[in-house]
Amino acid sequence: xxxxxxxxxxxxxxxxxxxxxxxxxxxxxxxxxxxxxxxxxxxxxxxxxxxxxxxxxxxxxxxxxxxxxxxxxxxxxxxxxxxxxxxxxxxxxxxxxxxxxxxxxxxxxxxxxxxxxxxxxxxxxxxxxxxxxxxxxxxxxxxxxxxxxxxxxxxxxxxxxxxxxxxxxxxxxxxxxxxxxxxxxxxxxxxxxxxxxxxxxxxxxxxxxxxxxxxxxxxxxxxxxxxxxxxxxxxxxxxxxxxxxxxxxxxxxxxxxxxxxxxxxxxxxxxxxxx
Length: 275
Known about the structure:
Blueprint: H1 6-20, H2 22-29, H3 35-53, H4 60-75, H5 81-88, H6 97-100, H7 102-107, H8 111-133, H9 141-167, H10 173-190, H11 192-197, H12 209-227, H13 234-254, H14 262-274
């Protein structure tokens, strides 16, 4: 197989990014060169393992084993593509492109950040594996905090590391975690019926929509505080866009709508970037 050139790989990475996430592909497109590749790499690596955790057809034991082995590979220094491909081989027809090309997404990352992104993705994979084996049985708010830390709070911490690498911007890591949790809790509310259909419930025992709305609002407000520490520019816009979309989605859910329209998304993005 002919390996793609660096420029071709960047192009393919951003095409996959657009296919996998409307929420993040838009703000990533507003980042400056260098930042754009760093954040895209981090997002795609984490999305690669997320697709395993959420896969509708893979047995839990298979998900667990794949996530644990990927975690080990990411911790082992240079990613061994042959070992990774061997790991994927029995499930190649079931896994999406974003997962199968995990090693490619590391290649678009600025070298100075590769170790950090591998480390964060490895921690996330291990945490996801543990929750798979718990069958996502979230009993308490503490359980919810733990789950949302692994699947989203770590994204916030990863982003803070990238901002510091880029221009020495220092941010509060607890607020960064809340930023991720806020976005994830909105997703939980938005996807509740779909999750129920696959037998998963992320609401703690005794919680209804009110409690989850309160949890989401509380973390989004902390996310608002998080972005106050960011300087004007592309990083601020990057964080403002998903946060504004999450607030908009929460408002829409409160009105009985499952998601906001593409027109509303464009209006929100235009408002943020014009400020």
